[in-house]
Amino acid sequence: MKALKIVIADNESVIRMDVREMLEEAGHEVVGEAVNGIKAVELARKLKPDLCILDIKMPEMDGITAAKLITEEKIAPVLLLTAFSQSDMVKRATDAGVLAYLVKPVQESNLFPAMEVAISRYQEMQQLEDELFKVKDTLAMRKTLDRAKGILMDAHGLTESEAFRRIQQYSMAKRKTIKEVAEAIIRAATK
């Protein structure tokens, strides 16, 4: 695993110090430390770490709430630390978008594999979101193009392929994308 920039949040300074030491000995950089969820979210927003390691039970804002904010804003993957392994706590963490969960005491043998899982899942989720965006964009473009072809077909008695060819030719002649040409045809027809 490459060296990571990490934010740690735990209201127990001894635990923060132990986790920091494990991380730094493995070549990672702890770029920020917090004692509560509010500060953890602020640090994550400001420092844009590769990973956030948060305790669940913290004052002012718990780790699950902080994890939800960090996840919703797509800042970084979150690994939760806790002394509690109840199923309701695990469910809350999962619902908040937490990608890995460790029960204290933290040990190197558990920490580093959990970090890899969290980062790998986060990257997979980002790739899926990118693909979904592209698919939605392509679908919207197809709908726009189909509508523009329909307008040309109705107005000029063209076949679908002839309408598409006209859009292509105009696109090349005016150095505009097919989408821009299709949108212009639709705008002109709705005036």
From TrEMBL:
Domain ANTAR: 125-186
Every Response regulatory domain range: 5-119
Entry annotated with the keyword Ribosomal protein: no
One Pfam family linked to the record: Response_reg
UniProt-recorded Gene Ontology molecular function terms: RNA binding
BP GO terms, sorted: phosphorelay signal transduction system
Signal peptide: none
Keywords annotated in UniProt: Phosphoprotein
Modified residue annotations for 4-aspartylphosphate: D55
UniProt-recorded name of the protein: Response regulator
Taxonomic source organism: Anaerovibrio slackiae
